[in-house]
Amino acid sequence: MMADRLDVLIVGAGFSGMYMLLKCREQGLKVRVIEAGSGVGGTWYWNRYPGARVDIQSLDYSFGFDENLEKEWRWSERYAPQPELLAYANHVADRFDLKKDISFHTKVTAAHWDAAADAWNVTLDNGEVIPARFVVMATGCLSVPTDVSFPGIEDYKGTIYRTSKWPHGGVDFSGQRVGIIGTGSSAIQSIPIIAESAAHLTVFQRTPNYSTPAHNGPIPEDDYKEWLADPRAFGARSRATSGGFWNDASADALATQTAPDDIKAELERRWAWGGFRILSGYVDQAIDPAANKIIADFIAGKIREQVKDPKVADLLTPKDHPFGTKRPCVDTGYYATYNRDNVELIDLRADPLERFTATGIKTKDHSFDFDAVVLATGFDAMTGAIERIDIRGVNGETIKEHWAAGPETYLGLMVAGFPNLFLITGPGSPSVLTNMINSIEQHVDYVARIIAHLNASQAGRIEASREAEQTWTDHCDQMAAMTLFTQTNSWYMGANVPGKPRRFMAYTGGLDVYTNICNTVADKGWEGFVIARGDQVLHESRKFDSLPPPPENMAPHLLDMAMGRVAAWMQEHGRV
Ligand code: FAD
Ligand code: NAP
């Protein structure tokens, strides 16, 4: 069944898809959103597990494109809980009457480029095929759970829940024996709440993570006053940072060159403020292992302070990765939960999980009976949702084939050989290293600008050149190689999915730098892009020349360390 041709088909109705829809409407485009779920909100629609909430302050994690929207919405807490975030998504959808252009309960299964029409043929799981000039993948970076499975799982007679597909009516664990697998952000948020109601909770940990306290509560008065005085300026300040939120970042302090008492005082101040502030006290933390260890040791001390049993505290202390190289978690009462009589921690490194049984889980040394097991086992991040769609570009190549060695994009926005296909917060953009809502706004605004430009110049298509894609991908790889990020088996590196190519998937240069690069590319007349209509090439700029200059103020020893790593990367990848 072939539907009428659209100007733009958007996949996903999370914050990305919703804002993209609005921007397309502003241009009078014929647009439709396809969403697998039965409502808007994406992440906040699916992840309804107990304790789910933002770990970036809500004042920052809000849209900034409409002054009235900002004024009429009030967050009740510093870190909004999932129901409130979902209510916010619905409020935005209703306020701008978005739902009428969204098809819910529908999945996009394929998108094939039709060169003769300068358009995509998009196939849905209901058999419908929709021709669309532009396709926007607003499919989310953390929207597809990993295919993790365990021997014997089909024999288990109790209930299995996934944090990422939580039942809409909630789950009552009162009086139940519950097991949870995983100790990432989802688990760290849900464990304290499940422990409050369950008769007994067993946590299966393979790798401990660093977590800092949220200190959730009312929005801090100073922040609130500042926001009230000028929401525009508040948002602009956040967007002009590398992480897309104000984090009191130090410009040049080095942990290795600061007196221990001063470091302690500074880290205590940041710990007391809570959340991610601890990440931005010292500029050498992400590059110099010695600096990183100072901060990691501080957090280890905090874990010991919170957990009464020293053996449990030790098990909960990360030892295999530098602080910040896996996404840090932000918690409410996580460590103290292990002081409860009804909570136990099983170290899967010492006592590996062998199989599920009819009644629970068997590890090498123990057997456990559970009424319910929670899988908080993570996502096929950044590429998962895109690669699950059969996307075929100009040569019939699939995007999965194009990314066989890891994702390669131009600016995280487009892929060579896949014209008129845009990624929102795709691999190669700052994305998951930032406050996502600000990255989403930047990307959507930019895509809308590209579409407006094409329409104004009566062009049929835009495509990233392979040269520009290669230069950008090398730049992303080199920027990541400077840091400690690449030394850790994280989902950022694709390491949590067996067989997934190993590449650090986000751009580490910062949202502020990245935004400038994107604007320069546009101002220089769409550098790195080929713009055409049918056989006629209207604009051809194959090279990308707008790399940011090397960091100016970096301490010499850090620069040496970073450049040494880049040289090693170049050698290893034959780029010398
Ligand atoms: P999503 O919200 O993931 O929406 C994508 C949508 O696309 C989904 O609804 C999905 O159903 C749909 N979709 C995917 N594939 C298809 C298909 N083939 N067909 C049809 N529909 C499809 N970021 C932060 O900045 N701060 C936080 O505190 C934070 N907390 C998070 C907590 C959790 C539990 C998770 C999982 C992520 C969190 N994130 C956070 C990241 C979060 O994903 C982003 O902040 C943001 O919500 C992403 O919005 P999005 O619209 O790009 O993607
Ligand atoms: P995650 O960070 O990838 O954590 C998954 C956990 O499951 C890890 O502890 C992992 O252990 C474990 N695991 C996976 N497979 C396993 C197996 N076969 N056996 C035993 N353990 C296994 O996933 P997540 O917690 O869902 O978080 C993903 C991301 O979503 C976060 O990093 C964050 O960006 C976002 N998020 C944010 C918040 C928030 O606070 N706002 C909340 C939830 C999620 P290993 O480490 O050993 O692989």
Characterise this structure.
This protein has 17 helices and 21 strands. The chain is an alpha/beta fold. The strands form five sheets. Strands 1, 2, 3, 4, 5, 6, 17 and 18 form an eight-stranded mixed sheet that branches. Strand 20 and strand 21 form a beta hairpin. It is globular, with a radius of gyration of 24 Å. The site of NADP nicotinamide-adenine-dinucleotide phosphate has 24 residues, from helix 5.
Largest sheet: 8 strands, mixed
Distance between the termini: 52 Å
Secondary-structure content class = alpha/beta
Number of H- or I-type helical stretches? 17
Task: Point out poorly predicted stretches.
Answer: none
Q: What fraction of residues sit in β-strands?
A: 15-25%
Average predicted confidence as pLDDT = 96
Helix percentage range: 25-40%
Radius of gyration: 24 Å
Strand elements, count: 21
- The coarse silhouette is globular
User: Which small molecules are bound?
Assistant: flavin-adenine dinucleotide, NADP nicotinamide-adenine-dinucleotide phosphate
What would you say about this model in short?
The chain has 576 residues and is of the alpha/beta class.
